[in-house]
Design a protein that fits this description.
By secondary structure, this protein is α+β, with helices and mostly antiparallel strands. The chain folds into three domains: 155 residues, 3-Layer(aba) Sandwich (D-Maltodextrin-Binding Protein, domain 2); 140 residues, Periplasmic binding protein-like II (D-Maltodextrin-Binding Protein, domain 2); 219 residues, Dipeptide-binding Protein, Domain 3 (Dipeptide-binding Protein, domain 3), CATH 3.10.105. The chain is 24% helix and 16% strand. The strands form six sheets. The protein has a six-stranded mixed β-sheet with strand order 14-18-13-17-15-16. Strands 8-9-10-1-11 form a five-stranded mixed β-sheet. A four-stranded antiparallel β-sheet has the order 4-5-7-6, covered by helices on one side. It is globular, with a radius of gyration of 23 Å.
Amino acid sequence: MEAPKPAAPAPRSDLRGGRPARRTDRNSLLNKHLTRAPAAILAAALLLTGCSGGTDDSGGGGDDPVTGGTVHMLQNADFSYLDPARGWDGGVNAFYRLIYRGLTMQAAGDSEDPNAMVPDMAESLGTPSEDGLTWTYTLKDGLAFDNGDPITSTELAFGISRTWDPEIGIGSPYLRNVIDAPEDYQGPYISGESNPSIETPDEKTIVFNLIEPFPEFDNVVAQVNAAPFPVGSGAGDEFINDVIASGPYTVDAYTPGSAITLVRNEHWDADTDDVRKAYPDAWEFEIGLEPATIDERLMAGQGTDASAIGGKVQPATLARLQDPALADRVISAEAYCTTYMGMNMTKAPFDRLEVRQAINLAIDRDSLVTASGGNQLAEPATTIIPPAVNGHKDFDLYPSENHAGDPEAAAALLAEAGLEDGFSFTLDIRSQAVMQAQAESIQQALEPLGIEVKLNVIDTSTYYETIGTPSQQSDAAITGWCPDWASSASTMVPPLVDGRVITDKGNTNLAQINDETLNARIDEIKAMTDIDAANAEWGEFDEEAMALAPMAPLLWEPSVFIPGENIANYIPNTSMTDLTIIGLKDPSQS
């Protein structure tokens, strides 16, 4: 999925310097929380999450989360969409877990294996047919929307079918890429029915017919757009004023760009939900704050800010976190997303391999680290799959001393392409200070080659939609990518280079590369049922894709967070922090 917006809640460091140690066991599941932190921060995290004892629901004063109160979220930008068929970045995905449910989901952030797939509204994980072409799920009893109407297989089939709508279905592509559908199917509003390849033989049973076997299908129906909707609902922008919740909270008030208030969904039955703890009575999201202001408020912790969380700490704040009064609240999260610059291969001169390779060689990644806040918050990336994700292979096809770029080698390639005098291109960037600094670093690295980089600054709330619309994207764009499930690398590289997933909207293949050899390799690896063996192949595939240079990996960006003193069970993650397990130590202080 697209990397989270910098100030969104999670929403993706290690306070040591230099490059993090490479893992020796790439096949072990990634532990996304406490084991990532260095010893001093680990101790603080253990205190914060209450790992030393059970949950006390009787009152406040301890370090464990208790029921009640209001958690406050301080954030810079609004969520991309409240509709799960449209949104698909780390920040909003974390938010969706509070108000929507699906058949399966990623395990709780404090579980033994937080990357595991577990049942949600389904009684168990799916049952595939012998040929792998159908998957069957049985729903739990007692499922309901926030108005009390029951959730059956019909509502699930309808909600999932919204993904095929050409205007609404711009979020996660996995449902429509994996589940079969009539060639002319355009979702229930246009085609007039739910996808006929999704069968509902009775109220509790739902059967999916796939295009081809997909061994990781439990992960597909865990995508945020696999949420139930009442039949006939959710067309257009209807969801803005009437969110139809199936999770523990529902939207009480929403002022776009300013505030969101969530209150308990009285029809959510905790007995049907093994993951969401839903400790707070309410959530209040304060939107539109400057990142530096968020840091200041969380460090001061006055009033309700003691019961607040925010995005990652800004680089200028890091030094102040050494204050002993703050140190026990500092928590880090290792990066498992990659920040990269996609180059649009449909536009000259990025249609030339030598040019794309020259850009990879010329970029000064050491300067990018500095621009991003230093080595506590960034390290040079040379691959698409980051070291923390299963399947990573350590390679560097475009090396330079200290990752500072090799302009001489780049100039030689440009000369081969007949561009020894350089060229100009437009680079899309988000309206964020760090993004601006990163773009300026690229400008400076390419300027000696006669390459002029023009910056096109796009508002954060519409950035992903803009660059994901081929008719609107410029020559190149800086963005990020995270795996949609971290237990394998199957969702790390293919969405960025598979030519068959290029769409008019919600496009993830920013380079618009469509290489038959790469496409065939994707099919070959996806068909493998041995996930460990497949991960090894994804590492090889990463190198094969980078030989064609459709993008320039820039950085792996770990993060540092400082929650309010009254926050408990906060386990930050650089892709999607699990908000559903967060609570307060003392609800009376919120």
